[in-house]
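Whiteboard transcription, Tuesday session. T.W. wrote the structure tokens on the left side:
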């Protein structure tokens, strides 16, 4: 390796449409190995997507939009003094976690997809 060597990753080089067609082939009964070989998509990627371990981005964006709507309502209720004390403690903890997540995202410590996945995890545990 010379000093001008720069690794050129090929992650995700297969494209979203190819992934969709590969998943269709899996649903048709083909094996992971044969689909991975014929479509050029890594076998583990196929397994994650086929088993539903990867959340589609549009679902995460919809959740984020719902969060913003709920947050505005909560702020209005808090301003009106309607939120009960035990709810405010619970939301304070949740808000701290969300604020830390947002700070990490804006500092560049998290990618958008990791941010949305982490946000989804918080939503599942509420």
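and on the right, the sequence the group agreed on:
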């Amino acid at each position: 390796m010379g000093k001008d060597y720069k690794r050129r990753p090929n992650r995700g080089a297969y494209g979203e449409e190819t992934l969709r067609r590969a998943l269709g082939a899996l649903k048709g009964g083909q094996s992971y190995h044969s689909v991975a070989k014929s479509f050029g998509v890594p076998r583990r990627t196929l397994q994650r997507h086929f088993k539903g371990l990867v959340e589609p981005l549009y679902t995460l964006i919809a959740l984020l939009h719902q969060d913003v709507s709920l947050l505005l309502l909560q702020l209005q209720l808090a301003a009106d003094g309607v939120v009960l004390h035990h709810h405010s403690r619970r939301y304070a903890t949740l808000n701290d976690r969300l604020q830390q997540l947002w700070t990490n995202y804006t500092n560049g410590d998290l990618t958008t997809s990791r941010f949305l996945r982490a946000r989804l995890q918080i939503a599942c545990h509420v």
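Someone added at the bottom: Residues 1-54 form one domain.
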